[in-house]
Amino acid sequence: MYRIAALALLAATALTSPAAAQSLGLGQGLSFDAGLGVKYSPEFMGSDNLDASPWLILRNADSDGDREDGVSISPSLNYVGKRDASDYDDLRGMDDIGHAGEIGVKLSWRAGEFTSYGAIRKGFGGHHGVVGELGTKYRIKASDKLTLWTGAELGLGNSEFTSTYFGVTAAESASSGKTVYDPDGGAYIARVSLEARYEFMPDTAVMGRLSYGRLLGDAGDSPLVETRSQPSVSIGVARRLNFRF
After folding, report:
1. Does the pTM exceed 0.90?
2. Where is the secretion signal located (predicted)?
3. From CA 207, how far away is CA 192, in angstroms rounded?
4. What is the pLDDT of residue 200?
5. Distance CA 16, CA 20 (A)
6. Count of other CB atoms within 10 angstroms of residue 4
């Protein structure tokens, strides 16, 4: 977990160097929220049971109050927890999947309080697939301290990603009794969300997120999926990091 957080901050720092900022069109600075929290979400993708796991907060790089409307580029990073098959009765006989980090870029287009975005990341560790999102969100400035966002998002993954988390190999089929399954890549989940950020002291905020996802296509049809519904609740504390040139 801490190794992934360090890599995330290293990547963010590299992308916010003056030379990189000019070449990527980041303007005169980049700001984003970074912190840690707890996420209460399905035990594994497709599970019908919820469990607590770390929430690595790296958000809102495209919602700097000083930024004008238009296009911007920022780092995109994610962390996926490990999946130990022995921990879950429904995964007995399946291979374990280790902790995974994902690193890439995010392209955002802001128009007033609306922000549309697309992100692409390469996985390392637990999976080596390519994943990303297409989405849009609406920002509500409720007060000087409280900001809300509503959003809708489509999660995408190539076949290497979907095979890791939703596939069943011949060896796994023999040991688990589940049908061999080789899912294609594409849109694997659709989500709607509500986020909140309350700045209780300068540049430090409590952040929360409620989301509801539904598995789609080959991912949703996997014999490992107990339910297509994937809700989650997250809460944590983040610090606003400001890089100015």
Report:
1. no
2. 1-21
3. 17
4. 95
5. 6
6. 21
